[in-house]
Amino acid sequence: MNTNDELRECIKRQRKYASFFDWNKKDEKELGIVETLFESMKLQGINTFQNLRISQKDPPDCIAEDQSGNLIGLEVSEFVDEEAVRFNAQGKDVYRDWAIDEIVKKLEIIITEKDSKTFHGGPCKKLILVIHTDEFVINFQTLKPILEIHEFKKTNQITKAYLLFSYDPEISHFPYIQLKIATTGHDNHVTTGIFQKTKLLQIE
User: Fold this and answer.
1) Which of 4, 73, 160, 187 gives 124 a disulfide partner, CB atoms 3.0 to 4.6 angstroms apart?
2) Which domain holds residue 15?
3) Residue 196: per-residue pLDDT
4) Cβ pair 129, 164 in contact under 8 A
5) What is the pLDDT of residues 95-112, one digit of tens each?
6) What is the DSSP string of 105-166?
7) Based on the structure, what is the number of domains in the chain?
């Protein structure tokens, strides 16, 4: 198979819904997402991590070092509506019209589920969760003032969490929000992934 054939196959396999970060190889996709976050952080004057690479023992998905040489684990997760993914794969052009409380609930679920994993290859000084999204209605400018003050439940392992958005041409980079995780309170536990969601809407 030549390069053009490989490209055609990649295009054919690409997901139809919220697919900006949807690459074919899982480990390369996860590495690229973390690299994207780090580049956006550098634009904000934050240059904390170095020597990023794919973890040989998953989870975490990637590892890096901080400026002191301490090992940092990075776990990647996606915020996407799987039902909308399935419908679009069937040729139905729909999207999820997320409400703010639904977004917060789903982020909480992602954090708690990832926090419950058994992580390998440590010990890591910190475990960072990178949640990426290309959902149609999830907007950085709308969510920023809400998520910057919302406090998610205390975690047992995850020390920091970020929500990374797809490329925004108005600001010429990938915006992100650091999610605030409580440092006191009851330890986190895995919560159910079932909650009432808004209906799927047809794309006009």
Assistant:
1) 73
2) 3-202
3) 55
4) no
5) 899 999 999 999 999 999
6) HHHHHHHHHHHTS---S---SEEEEEEEE--TT--HHHHHHHHTT-EEPP-SS--EEEEEEP
7) 1
* CB-based contact 185:154 (threshold 8 Å): yes
End-to-end CA, the chain: 38
Query: H or E segment at 95?
Result: strand 94-96
How does strand 94-96 pair with strand 126-133?
Answer: unpaired
Q: In the structure encoding, which two tokens stand for residue 177, read together?
A: 């929000």
As a dihedral over the C-alpha atoms of residue 127, residue 62, residue 163, residue 170, rounded to 10 degrees, the angle is: 140
Give the tens place of pLDDT for each residue, 56-99: 888 999 999 999 999 999 999 999 999 988 888 888 888 899 99
The predicted-structure confidence for 8-29, as pLDDT tens digits, reads as follows 443 345 556 666 666 667 888 8
Q: What does the alpha-carbon distance between residue 170 and residue 180 come to, in Å, rounded to a whole number?
A: 26
131 forms beta bridges with: 77, 163
Report pLDDT for 11: 37
**Which residues fall within 8 angstroms of residue 78, CB to CB, at 6 or more apart?**
21, 131, 132, 133
Query: CA 91 to CA 64: how far, in whole Å?
Result: 40
Tokens of 6: 């490989």
The DSSP secondary-structure symbol of 25 reads S
Residue 132 backbone dihedrals phi, psi, to 5 degrees: -110, 150
